[in-house]
Design a protein that fits this description.
heterodimer, A: mainly alpha, B: mainly alpha
């Protein structure tokens, strides 16, 4: 039962593995940019998140 | 604390908790229908007690975590959680994935419980316990996620408790799943709000100075709504053309 609960808890945040990895990648890139040019990091984070969402949903078509 | 500052947290917590409470109610009602109110009620009460213990044990730790670290962790989890909801809501709205149907979920749960009629009542109680605990953990996460970053835990908790109370009262009087609630529209709206909060808190955690401070969340929500709507329309078109 505990394994089932753990699986469901992870499932709260990760449903589609590709989407989860893409979100983490966007955050990692934004973190790197934040250390170099803090003013641009917000744009990278927002635009990256929106692009990842759109691309992932459109990927369902294929 | 002004209403304008706490309104986004209250409404996000209310709408998100409404969805989770409806899902928990469906399973508790299924247990009650097949095995009676005793195991359903005991399981739900045990689930609520476990939740209260978890909140009481872990809640005070939140004050000890540095705010910027807390904002970053919550932001990342919110982005994962919110965009997962939004993706699913877009796919369901476009017809790529079937809509979540509480009536069908209720029928499936009751059928499963009837198959195990010979088993003890505690198995039915366990189903009720698990539903309340897991959906309740989602409610707790939503409250922490939308409230902790700006010390708005109380208003967010009030929103969540309001939603859970509303669903409990409705379930008590109706004795059937709340199938008429537009769950996908709610998930769509909550997905948009949580994703917007996620971008905001992740940015704050990374040291980004957002223009307009908290007001930026409204702009982010507008952008997520626009992109989600466009993706839904773009996805629906080929699906309609396909034989």
């Amino acid at each position: 039962m505990l394994a089932g609960v753990a699986r469901e808890l992870i499932g709260l945040f990760v449903d589609d593995g590709v989407l989860a990895v893409a979100i983490i990648a966007v955050i990692a890139i934004a973190a790197i940019v934040a250390s170099l040019a803090p003013g641009v990091a917000g744009v990278v984070l927002l635009a990256g998140s929106l692009a990842v969402l759109f691309a992932n949903v459109m990927g369902v078509q294929r | 604390m002004t209403w304008a500052a706490s309104a986004p947290a209250v409404s996000a917590a209310f709408l998100g908790s409404l969805v989770e409470a409806i899902e928990a109610l469906t399973i508790v009602l299924a247990v009650a229908t097949v095995r009676g109110w005793r195991p359903a009620g005991l399981g739900a009460a045990a689930g609520l007690a476990s939740l209260a213990l978890i909140v009481a044990a872990l809640g005070p730790l939140l004050d000890r975590v540095p705010l910027q670290g807390l904002q970053l962790v919550i932001g990342v989890l919110l982005l994962l959680f919110g965009m997962r909801w939004l993706r699913k809501a877009i796919l369901r709205a476009a017809g790529a994935v079937p809509l979540h149907d509480e009536a069908a979920a209720f029928a499936a749960s009751t059928a499963e419980l009837r198959e195990h009629r010979s088993r003890l009542d505690w198995l039915a109680g366990l189903a009720s316990f698990k539903a309340v605990l897991l959906e309740g953990l989602e409610v707790v996460f939503i409250v922490i996620a939308v409230g902790a970053g700006r010390r708005l835990l109380l208003p967010a908790s009030a929103g969540a408790l309001g939603a859970c109370g509303l669903v409990a009262i409705a379930g008590f009087f109706l004795h059937r799943p709340l199938a008429r609630v537009p769950e996908n529209a709610l998930k769509f709206a909550v997905g948009v709000m949580l994703s917007a909060f996620g971008v905001y808190w992740t940015g704050e955690g990374l040291g980004v100075a957002w223009p307009g401070a908290d007001l930026a969340i409204v702009g982010f929500a507008g952008l997520f709504l626009l992109v989600a709507a466009l993706a839904g329309v773009a996805l629906r078109r080929p699906l309609e053309v396909a034989p």
